[in-house]
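Weekly modeling sync, notes
Attendees: S.R. (lead), two postdocs, one rotation student

Agenda item 3: backlog of single-chain predictions. S.R. asked that every request posted to the team notebook include the full sequence so nobody has to chase files. The rotation student volunteered to paste the first one in as an example of the format we agreed on. Action items at the bottom.

Example entry:
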Amino acid sequence: MTARQTAYEVVLRVFEDDAYADRVLRSAAEGLDARDRALAQRLAYGTVQRVRTLDYAIEELGRRPLRKLDPPVRAALRLGAYQLAYAAGIPSHAAVNESVELVRRARLERAVSFTNAVMRRLDAGIRQLIGSLPEGPLKHSYPDWVAEVWTRDLGPEQALELMRAQNEPPETVVRLVTGEPPGEPTDVPGAYRVDRVDEQALREGRIWPQSRGSQLAGLIVGAREGERTLDLCAAPGGKATQLAGEVVAVEIHEARARELQENVRRLGADNVTVVNGDALALPSELTGFDRVLVDAPCSGLGVLAGRPDLRWRAQPLPDLQRDLLGVAAERVRPGGTIVYSVCTINAEENEAIVDASGLRPGPLGDEWPPFQHPHRPEFLLTLPHVHGTSGFFIARLTA
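Predicted structure, as returned to the notebook:
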């Protein structure tokens, strides 16, 4: 299977089978060398991210509703349109010809001439069409509701900058677990920027891929030797394995709990005990913790750059977040510390959850000025277009 065939398989499965892009790529790219795998990922992820804009262009220039096309034709046109509009270094004739061949390989000979005609129209007009679109969610390929949330919380200019930033590949950062520094130091202690993840170092547990925003949340917990910390939503374990002292790491899903246990083993985090259970219904003996980390499930609007299909399936989870923060307040000792973090940029999942909890926030912005929340200085908010890392909201609270 070639890089384009792999990318086509990802695009087809994501939009026709509601599959996850990273999982499809992992299986479809087996057998590709590193260069072809990188090309397949760039084409697949870019197409999935930009699909709203691409679909608009295909319908405008192709003069036929996408819903009336066979799924393989839809996928081939989307992939070809992405290459013509956004993929620097790929000749337009290659994008056209390969798209036609993908339809032929799908044994849809009757659609070959149509695909060829649409691809040629796209080649002639897609860049100008996209360039003429007004700035906003159609041009940058986001759901309207996401653009509305960011405009409400950050203002129109920053919302546009954020949309642009999360259409670019994220930086590659690892956390140093043990051994020599693996790359360029950053503004977050222990976080190193690298060109690529060293797979051998990862297998040996010397590093862990983790964004600066995520590592910052783990550092804010401040767990120390001799203390007990509860991590309520722990998989895959990046933050849990950052923590010192005795750590109880909870994960509700059995498969993810197994993955968490394996990562704990690989990283040599002997201080971490994994519990496969529901954080909302924990055994009564799991109480009196010095610190609790609530790294809650969320809409994920801060990590859209690295998860291309998430923008099309994201949804806010304020009810669950409020419930989890309530559990943290019950399980921490009086005067103990709770850290609430979410990888999203949405006030309704961020400061609104904390405000409703009745817990007292500490002055995090004074301790980490570069990451101070732009409107609420007691909180931290990492922003992709400002800090170059994933978007995380972080609050440190006292019970």
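Discussion: group reviewed the output briefly. The radius of gyration is 23 Å.
Action items: rotation student to repeat for the remaining queue; S.R. to check formatting next week.
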